[in-house]
Specification:
By secondary structure, the chain is an all-alpha fold. The protein has helices at residues 13-32, 38-64, 68-90, 98-108, 110-115, 138-149, 155-169, 176-190, 201-220, 227-263, and strands at residues 126-127, 130-131.
Length: 264
């Protein structure tokens, strides 16, 4: 397996610009708005982030759980992982190395970690029709992935690139999806983007199909970006935009509410 080549092509520049416009609007409200009480703004931002993190845990659990009991356990583990991630971000720590990857693996998939403590998989794994790399190649590929990430400056592209490639490597015996999505969101939230998730069964199907087609195309020609890989990046960018927009709308409503109360 060869990793996706750099540089990353220009992908959905209009949507990326819209995300940054929305985020700047949020920061302007926080910094300059006289219509907003500071406590109201803080409560709203914390509430919006908490809502997104709760949805992130629920939706991630629904991605993989086979029944309600499994889903509840997944949510519990994912919430522990998000508490850890939030604490690290508060300490100005971004996601950047294998030690952190194993920390997330232990938190999101404690049963799998107990069976394979701090170890990559030792068996061949197949995702649909895609055969993941030989287990002997996994340590070197993970090392190369972290090295490659250091050359990607755009935080959004870095997070999506890591997500795509770690799922393609599939380094763990189990829990790869949960671990990867929390790692991606750690990178996004560190740079003040909202966490993202697959929202429903339709989007879940699209997510799985796009990744599968991307992996198959890269198996045939690993040296070029194919339409399916680019589509996966576009879908992830759209999910970031959707949640950025949700945060902005929730925070912006406070100004209108305060204005209405002042005029009454």
């Amino acid at each position: 397996m060869l990793l996706l080549p750099l540089p990353i092509p220009e992908i959905d520049t209009i949507k990326l610009a819209q995300i940054h416009i929305e985020l700047k609007a949020i920061y302007r409200l926080i910094t300059f708005s006289r219509k907003h009480q500071a406590d109201d703004l803080l409560d709203s931002i914390l509430s919006s982030t908490a809502d997104l993190k709760e949805l992130l845990s629920i939706k991630n659990a629904q991605m993989e759980a086979q029944n309600e009991e499994e889903a509840q356990l997944y949510v519990k583990n994912l919430n522990k992982a998000l508490i850890f991630v939030t604490s690290e971000i508060n300490s100005n720590v971004n996601f950047k190395d294998q030690i952190q990857l194993f920390q997330l693996f232990r938190l999101t998939s404690p049963e799998s970690h107990e069976l394979h403590p701090n170890k990559f998989r030792t068996q061949l794994v197949q995702i649909g029709s895609y055969l993941c790399p030989d287990p002997k190649l996994v340590p070197a590929l993970v090392n190369e992935l972290f090295h490659t990430m250091s050359f990607i400056k755009n935080p959004i592209f870095k997070a999506i690139y890591f997500h795509h490639e770690l799922i393609r490597i599939h380094p763990f015996a189990d829990g790869n999806g949960r671990t990867t999505r929390i790692a991606k969101n750690w990178m996004l939230m560190y740079d003040l983007y909202p966490p993202i998730f697959v929202k429903d069964d339709t989007e879940k199907k699209e997510y799985i199909q796009t990744l599968s087609k991307s992996f198959q195309a890269l198996d045939r020609d690993p040296n070029f970006w194919n339409e399916h890989t680019i589509n996966f990046f576009k879908q992830e960018i759209h999910r970031i935009y959707r949640n950025t927009n949700m945060m902005y709308n929730k925070i912006h409503q406070i100004g209108h509410l305060n204005n209405s109360q002042a005029d009454a």
